[in-house]
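QUALITY CONTROL LOG
STEP: pairwise intake check
CHECKER ROLE: data steward
CRITERIA: each record must contain a sequence immediately followed by its C-alpha cells, with no blank fields

ENTRY 1 OF 2
RESULT FIELD BELOW
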Amino acid sequence: KNPVLNLRYWTKTSRMLRVRDLPHVRLQVASEYVRQGLVENRFPTDRIDLVPLYSNPIDHPTPATSEPGLLLLPSRLVPAKGVHVALAALARIRELDWRCVIAGDGWQRPALERLVGELGLVDRVRFLGEIPPAELDAWYRRSRIVLFPVLRHEPFGLVGVEALAHGRPVVAFGGGGADEWLADGESAIRIGARDPAAFAAAIARLLGDPALWERLAAGALARHRHFEPDAYLDRLIASFARARQSRA
C-alpha cells in the first residue's frame, strides 16, 4: 500500500536474490518467516541459516517488581504498529483496573493522542515518547503485560524477546517473524485475527487470572534462554563455519 516502503523492500529483496547464483554465499535470517520468503523466491534452502536475534538477560527479574494493571506498549507510532488497534481494544475493557504506558514516538502520535481523548482514556493512557534504554528497562520491570499489536508481518519483532527477558507475558497478534518467539499458552497469548475485541479479551483474561499470569511469566523466562547472547553466538559461529567450509 505504501509505494516507498514497497520499493525499499523489493530493492533489498532483489539484492539478496542476485547473490543466490554465487555458490559460496550464505544468508543469515532472523526468523523462519524470512527464510520461507527466500525459499519461495528460489534461494537455495541449504544456504540459509536461521540466526534469531537476541536480547541480554536481566539480572534477577522477578514478578514482585510488576505493578498490577500496568500495560507497556513499546512501539514506533506509525499505523503498521497497530497502536490504534490496541487503544480501541483498551476502550472495550475500561471497566477493568489497568493503565497503559506507550514508549516510543512517530508521526502518528498526534492522531493517537486525539484518539485517546475521543475514547475517554486520557487518565488511563500515557505517552512517554522516545526514552533511553535504561528507562525503558525500568518500565519493563514495572509492567504486568507487554502489548504487541503489530498489524503487518515483521521480520522478527525484538520487543517480544525483550519482554521475555524480563519475564513479562505478551499479548500479540501472531504471524510473520513474531512467531519465532511468540509461544501461545507458554509465554504469551497469540491472537490470529487483527481484531480489537479479541485483543481486549486476551488482556482481560491475563488481568483477571493471576495463576495464568504466573505461568506465562515463568514461561517467558524459560523461553528467553533460546534468545540469549550465548545462543545467538553459537548459531552465528556455526553459520560462519558452514560458509568457510563451502569455500574450501
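ENTRY 2 OF 2
RESULT FIELD BELOW
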Amino acid sequence: MGNKGILVGKYHNKYLMLGGQQFVLLAAPTRSGKGVAIVIPNLLNYSDSVVVLDLKLENFLLTSKFRAKNGQKVYLFSPFSED
C-alpha cells in the first residue's frame, strides 16, 4: 500500500494515477476485466477507505486479508447472504 491516488491505467510500463480525493464509478460489461485491471490493483494499493459493490465476493476474498494485515479495518456487508 502506498501511493496516494487511484490507479486508472498503465502507459509505457508506468502506472497512471488520479491524485487527490476522488469518487470513482466503474461500469463495464461482464468479463471485461474490471476486477483484474482496476478494482483489485486499487484495493491492494489504495490505503484510504473504499466501498466496493462485490456481489460475488471475488474482490473481497482476494484482497481483504492483505488490507487487514496492513492495518485497515475490513468489513463485509452482505444483507442477502444465505449463510
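INTAKE CHECK: passed for both entries
DESCRIPTIVE NOTE, ENTRY 2: The first strand starts at residue 6 and ends at 11.
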